[in-house]
TrEMBL record, chain A:
Transmembrane segments: 37-59, 71-95, 121-145, 171-194
Protein name, entry field: Uncharacterized protein
Key word Transmembrane helix present: yes
Keywords: Membrane, Transmembrane, Transmembrane helix
UniProtKB/TrEMBL annotation, chain B:
UniProt GO molecular function: DNA binding; sigma factor activity
Protein name: Sigma-70 family RNA polymerase sigma factor
Biological process according to GO: DNA-templated transcription initiation
Pfam families referenced in this protein's UniProt entry, alphabetically: Sigma70_r2, Sigma70_r4_2
UniProt keyword Transcription regulation present: yes
Coiled-coil region(s): none
């Protein structure tokens, strides 16, 4: 007979070898915390929203005054309104996805829902990075076009000592560009690592299931 | 928390715990990991329990949630170093007259099953549990035809591992 058939025959008769938990053992488990992947995706996405929100509070007062002085005040308020509206939409989507995930679905359906959730997170990340890049580029274009004012208020607000305007602007833009690049690379790396670890097994298994259907 | 709901859940899980143990044994390599996965499955079952309406058998519903957890939600299984699994080695044939080669072959078959990927393992598990292809396809979310084709391929694969 085929070995798999033999194994099947033995399979049920092995049950007495299995561990036996008591009612109390199982009852105690109900009180323990889950460590499921869904929970982590949800927590991390909430942490991300908090992170981006907190970041806004860490803009120093001098920098805020500087923005006001050079006439960016209204523009920045506009940017913030748009930004937080989009955040609101994302929070709603995260919550909806989280609720939709139900372990009673078929394995494939469950994976699809989790990957959908992941996709929302991905869009959130892409939005944040894109918004970051656009803002950095936009502001720098503004600085570039208004070099005289920028230089004037830089000296007033930050008390930068005597240095020629041309030299100052060169250093200024160099720092802006470097800082922007470092920031973006850091964010991309962070997401790659966090979600890479979290999603590796799920992605592999989902591909395996898709393969069956081809 | 609803005491009555808790009581009926724990009682039913206690009665059907073998299903969960068998999945844990197949998907983990040591008793720590076994207990860890058992606990995670219990938590997921309990969480999904309010939605269990009893239109299917408790055990049928359990297969689905437990495998969901082992394959999709649980992350720790790959972390432990892969060692020769004690349960697999000590696998015994109880009813067939003692035959060294037959036992050897069964051990081999069991460890070959354990070495399959998560999805193939789930198919074989449901097959060993004597589930029909409709139930297998519903649990995994693939069509019945695909489940059948896939199962035949796995059987073929296992056969070549055992008899190279």
């Amino acid at each position: 007979m085929d070995q798999l058939e033999l194994l099947k025959k033995q399979w049920q008769s092995r049950e007495q070898e299995l561990p036996k938990l008591t009612y109390d053992d199982i009852y105690k488990m109900l009180l323990k915390k889950s460590s499921s992947i869904v929970k982590w995706i949800f927590y991390i996405s909430i942490a991300e929203i908090i992170f981006w929100t907190l970041l806004a509070f860490f803009v120093p007062e001098s920098s805020r005054k500087f923005s006001d002085d050079i006439g960016l005040h209204n523009i920045l308020i506009g940017v913030n309104v748009v930004n937080y509206s989009i955040f609101g939409v994302f929070i709603f989507l995260f919550y909806r996805n989280y609720r939709k995930i139900s372990t009673t679905d078929s394995i494939k359906e469950l994976m699809r829902n989790i990957l959908q959730t992941r996709k929302t997170v991905k869009y959130f990340v892409v939005y944040n990075i894109t918004a970051c890049i656009i803002l950095i580029i936009g502001i720098n274009i503004f600085y570039y076009l208004n070099q005289d004012i920028v230089f004037k208020f830089m000296i007033e607000d930050y008390g930068i000592a005597s240095i020629s305007q041309e030299k100052f602007m060169n250093i200024f833009f160099l720092i802006q560009i470097l800082f922007g690049i470092v920031m973006i690379v850091f964010i991309i790396l962070f997401y790659r690592i966090v979600y890479g670890i979290l999603m590796r097994k799920l992605n592999k298994n989902y591909k395996e299931l898709k393969k069956i259907e081809m | 928390m609803n005491k009555q709901l808790e009581h009926s859940f724990v009682t039913q899980l206690e009665e059907n715990q073998n299903i969960v143990h068998k999945i844990c044994r197949l998907y983990t390599n040591d008793s720590d990991a076994h207990n860890d996965l058992f606990q995670e499955i219990t938590i997921q079952l309990w969480r999904a329990y309010p939605k269990f309406r009893g239109d299917s058998k408790f055990s049928t519903w359990m297969y689905r949630v437990a495998l969901n957890t082992a394959i999709t939600l649980y992350r720790k299984s790959k972390r432990s170093i892969k060692t020769q699994d004690y349960e697999g080695v000590s696998f015994k044939i109880s009813s067939v007259p003692y035959d060294d080669t037959a036992e050897q072959q069964l051990k081999l078959m069991y460890s070959a099953v354990k070495d399959l990927n998560d999805i193939d393992k789930a198919l074989v598990f449901l097959y060993l549990e004597d589930k029909n292809y409709r139930e297998i396809s519903e649990t995994l979310g693939i069509t019945e035809v695909n489940a059948r084709v896939k199962m035949n391929r796995i059987k073929e694969k296992l056969r070549t591992i055992i008899n190279p």
